Every structure is written in C-alpha cells, then in structure tokens.
Recover the amino acids of this structure.
C-alpha cells in the first residue's frame, strides 16, 4: 500500500480486519503522516516519498521510501528514513520494522545504519559529531516557523488587521488551521514558548515581533516561504518525472 | 541574436554544458554513479515543455552540430559560456571538461567562452592546470563546485585558506568572474557545503572579482538574496530558475522572479539555460513573453521592463565578460536602481 492508494481508495479496509478497524498498513501510513521532510516542512506521505508499506500478520513491517533524485542530500535522506523507522516502531502491535531507502547513491550506507539501529554517524563515520543531526534539524525548523508565520501574517493583514493588532495577538487567538497548528508544533520543538497566551508572532530566536519591525520581517519571512514552497514544487515535479507519476500540480501550482 | 515580435535581442547564455555521459565513458565500478548522475539531469529536463524533451540516449551525448542547431540556429544565442564540471571519478574522460568544451570554442570562435575551474584540495596541480588553460585560451571566468567529493572530503569552502590563495591567483591572472554552483543539493553531506556564507565572505575580501551564484542558491534562495543585497559584486545566475520553474511552476516562477528583482535587482541577474538540461529557445521566448500574473499577490514586486529583459538576457553578462554589444541592441542608460540597494548600503555602512 502507498499513500496514493490510500488516497485513491478511501474507506477500503484490508482483508481480514474487523469492519471499522484500520489495517496495520493504514496505521503505518497514518504514523508516517507525522514524518516531515525537514527541508520542505511537509509530511513524507503528501510528498509521495513513501513508495510501499507491507505488514505481515505477525506485525513485521516493511516501509520503502523513494526520493526525487538518487543524489538528494544524504543528511536529509537519513533524517526522514530514521524518523520513519522510529514513528512505525512506536505503533502498538508492530514487531520488526525495516525501512529501506530505494535507489539512492548512499542507499547501502543509510539502509545498513537503519538496520543496525544506528544514527547518522553509523552510516557515515567521521562525517559529523552531530549523530542525530540536531543542528541541521533546528536550522530548518526555524526557517519553517518563520515561513509559516509569514503565511499567517499575510492572511491576517489581507483581511484588514493592522500591524499593531497582528503583533498583539496570542497563540490562542491565531485562526485555527494546519498552519497555526504547525507553528505551535515547531515552537515546542525549538523550545519557544507556545502556550496559549504567548505572542503569536516571534522572531527566529523566540523574541516577540514588534509592529515597527513587521514590514521588513514580513518581506524576509515571505522570501523564506517562497523558497520552501518552490523547493517543494521542484521536488514533487522531479519525483513525478522519475517515477512516471502524474504531475497533478503542473501549471497550476496546486492552486 | 534572438528575434521576437520584430525586436532584436542580444543574448548571452551564461550557463551551458557540452558533456559526454554515454555508457562508453562510464568508469568500471562507478557505473551506478555515472548513470544516476545523467538520469538525474534527464529528470530535470522533464520540467520543460514536453515537445522539447529528448530521449535519454540523445541526452547522454550530443554532437557539436546538435549544439550549433539548438543554441545558435534555433535560439539565436549570441555568446554561450560553458561551465566545466569534471567528475573524473565517474567518467573516464570526464563529464564536461575544459578540453571537451574547447571543441566548441574552436569550432565557433568568438561565440563560445569556456571557463576554467579549480579545486583547492588538489593543491598546486589544480592551479598549474588553470594556468595551462589560461595560456591556451585566455580565461575570463572560472567555475567552482564547493560540494564536490574528493579524496574523502565532502566539500570545501571558499573561505578555506587554500581556496583564498586560489582566488588570489585567479585575480592575479586577470580573471574576473567566479561562478559558484550553489544549487540543488547533489553531493553534499554536511550543511556547510551548500551554504553560501562563504560567498558573503570572499565577495567582501575580493571586491574586484564578480561572484555569480549559479541557480541562485536553490534550495536556499533566501540565504542567497540576503547575501546579494549586501554585496555589490554578487550576481544571480538564473539557470534552473527559468528551466525548472517557468513552465512547470509558473506561480512559483513569478514569486522567485519577484523576489530576485526586489532583493538582487535587474542589473545583477543573468540568463543561463543550463543547456543541454534544457534547450535555450523555449526559455528565451518564454521569458520575453512573460509578465507577472494579474494578481494582488504579485503587486508589490518590481516590474519587468523592456530594458530589464535586455539586461537579463545579455547586457549584464556582456559587461562582466567584456563582450561587445552590437549597436542598437543595448539598453538606455542610466540603469534603474534596484529597490533593495538602499538597504544594502545601510548595512555596509553600518558594519564598517
């Protein structure tokens, strides 16, 4: 099963599962929804990076991942594969998890380290002292937070809010939606106060945004958002070309 | 020159290749990399209009006549600049070497410029090679690839002392233009290899040199823009921006162009087709026909004028490479000031 099959056949249960209950494959795919490409800040499932999921009756799970090109950066590739392994492992009833990165030029190194339960330095000894790539993850989480705040801020301004009103908002006052929820998750991950009464808009270091600084901040933050979205677009297109998938977003940018 | 709606345009294509990635050129034991590399490039071609796609076999190795047809005859490019990428670890005779590119320069004198390259990790040999190339055909530019793997190294920085010595040498030799591939992540292992902080540093250290950031730092456009705003000698190489986005993702293309026009400015943006990843003809025509969508989302970006189109397509690169622009094909002076320049001056003054 892949994320596309799931999307294409809603409500279709696996053979042998009680009516209404999710199959192991479906639970695995749901768990993989929480695995994010750190560079694009999007789930690997909607990016179509999950090429197959298979589960045995005993709870052994095989997940295969594919990336847009064989030369995609190994550090991000490793992060996604390791996060996928950890997310599936946490599922109740799952016994053995095998995550395989398909058709990648460092696939042997990455798959070997995953199978041995090792971190990044297990795959590439001596490359970095940062075994779980915390620094890299944090850098991109800050970018993602800035980009998502920019989207929220632009949308508020376009509905007539003033700069003063925007910077006075709290987390709880943000319009509920995926963008706001992702901001809260990213803040929690970065150790930035995300409680309901905390300021809704913060600079990358967690300091509140001021009305005076807003125009320039928004200009820079919008650029980061454009960069993330553009890269996501290129990755989707390359993946579609490489695997002969339909380029559903072509010429419309998904709009 | 390129003719469009009765107008004539002078075109310098600052990013081209003449490669051989045919299976006969793959090194035994390295076939998977040699094959994977060219297939990755071929996938990028898939982002172009379908009628311009090539079969893989043609894409692996194309002839001088094919280049002449696609670049000069069909697209009306006046001058092509070939960027060398060696990849000798995977390809017996190299992928897109200086020598191979020189076949074009020798066949089309005055119409093809070939850039040299250096890699500070190769030590003296690299600079000797560059000097030999310079003797053979006086170089106006070099290409550097900081993310390339070499002898256990996973990339280098232009700030490394050895690299700084190479840049000094490049400057002594009278070479003005340094093209740095800061583009889609191909090899990099650690984040430094594709970061562009090193450009920020060397652009200040070598104000006489021009630094053309190829692929505008994709996927780190924002880092590139912030650097280009502060450094007057940092330029945007548009290869991949046009080829990868203009057809496949027109709204993102519009946003990226808008951001580049705002932060970098029309005087520092250079057209590059990345041939043979994409043919230049549809990119030039598409660019001349292009304007921002009529939508509030794009309303505060600087507009693209007839003068800006001419600058980006050829006049800006002609200045960097001392290429004579035929009379009547230039742009009216003085150039418009990019919106972000005031900011950059403030930053520079503030940091002194």
């Amino acid at each position: 099963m892949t994320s596309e099959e799931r999307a294409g056949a809603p409500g279709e249960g696996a053979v042998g599962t009680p009516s209404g209950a999710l199959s192991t494959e479906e639970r695995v795919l749901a768990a993989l929804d929480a695995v994010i490409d750190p560079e694009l800040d999007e789930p690997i499932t909607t990016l179509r990076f999950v090429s197959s999921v298979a589960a045995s009756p005993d709870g052994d799970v095989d997940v295969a991942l594919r990336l847009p090109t064989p030369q995609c950066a190994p550090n991000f590739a490793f992060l996604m594969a390791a996060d996928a392994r950890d997310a599936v492992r946490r599922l109740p009833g799952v016994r053995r998890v095998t995550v395989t990165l398909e058709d990648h030029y460092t696939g042997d190194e990455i798959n070997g380290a995953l199978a041995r339960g090792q971190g990044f330095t297990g795959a590439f000894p001596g490359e970095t002292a940062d075994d779980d790539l915390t620094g890299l993850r944090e850098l991109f989480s800050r970018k993602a937070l800035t980009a998502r705040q920019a989207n929220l801020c632009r949308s508020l301004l376009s509905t007539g809010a003033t700069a003063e009103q925007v910077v006075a908002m709290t987390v709880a006052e943000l319009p509920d939606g995926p963008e706001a929820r992702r901001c809260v998750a990213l803040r929690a991950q970065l150790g930035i106060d995300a409680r309901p009464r905390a300021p809704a808009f913060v600079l990358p270091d967690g300091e509140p945004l001021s009305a005076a600084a807003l125009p320039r901040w928004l200009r820079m933050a919008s650029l980061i958002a454009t960069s993330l979205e553009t890269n996501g677009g290129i990755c989707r297109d390359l993946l579609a070309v490489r695997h002969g998938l339909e380029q559903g977003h072509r010429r419309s940018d998904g709009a | 020159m390129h003719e469009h709606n009765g107008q004539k345009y002078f075109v310098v294509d600052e990013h081209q290749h003449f490669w051989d990635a045919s299976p006969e050129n793959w090194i035994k034991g390295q076939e998977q990399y040699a094959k994977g590399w060219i297939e990755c490039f071929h996938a990028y071609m898939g982002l172009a209009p379908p009628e311009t796609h090539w079969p893989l076999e043609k894409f692996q190795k194309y002839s001088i006549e094919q280049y002449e047809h696609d670049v000069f005859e069909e697209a009306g490019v006046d001058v092509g600049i070939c960027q060398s990428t060696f990849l000798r670890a995977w390809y017996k005779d190299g992928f897109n070497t200086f020598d191979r590119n020189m076949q074009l320069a020798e066949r089309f004198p005055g119409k093809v410029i070939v850039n040299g390259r250096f890699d500070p990790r190769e030590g003296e040999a690299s600079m000797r090679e560059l000097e030999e190339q310079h003797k053979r055909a006086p170089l106006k530019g070099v290409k550097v690839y900081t993310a390339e793997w070499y002898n256990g190294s996973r990339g280098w920085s232009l700030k490394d002392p050895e690299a700084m010595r190479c840049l000094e040498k490049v400057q002594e030799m009278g070479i003005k233009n340094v093209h740095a591939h800061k583009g889609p992540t191909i090899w990099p292992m650690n984040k430094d290899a594709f970061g562009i902080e090193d450009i920020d540093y060397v652009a200040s250290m070598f104000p006489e040199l021009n630094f053309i950031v190829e692929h505008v730092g994709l996927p780190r456009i924002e880092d590139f823009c912030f650097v280009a705003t502060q450094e007057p000698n940092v330029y945007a190489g548009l290869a991949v921006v046009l080829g990868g986005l203009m057809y496949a993702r027109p709204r993102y293309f519009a946003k990226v162009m808008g951001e580049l026009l705002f932060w970098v400015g029309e005087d520092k943006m250079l057209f590059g087709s990345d041939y043979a990843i994409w043919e230049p003809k549809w990119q030039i025509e598409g660019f001349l026909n292009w304007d921002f969508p009529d939508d509030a989302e794009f309303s505060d970006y600087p507009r693209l004028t007839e003068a800006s189109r001419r600058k980006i397509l050829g006049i800006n690169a002609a200045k960097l490479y001392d290429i004579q622009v035929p009379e009547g094909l230039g742009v009216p002076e003085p150039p418009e000031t990019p919106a972000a320049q005031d900011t950059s001056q403030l930053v520079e003054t503030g940091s002194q």
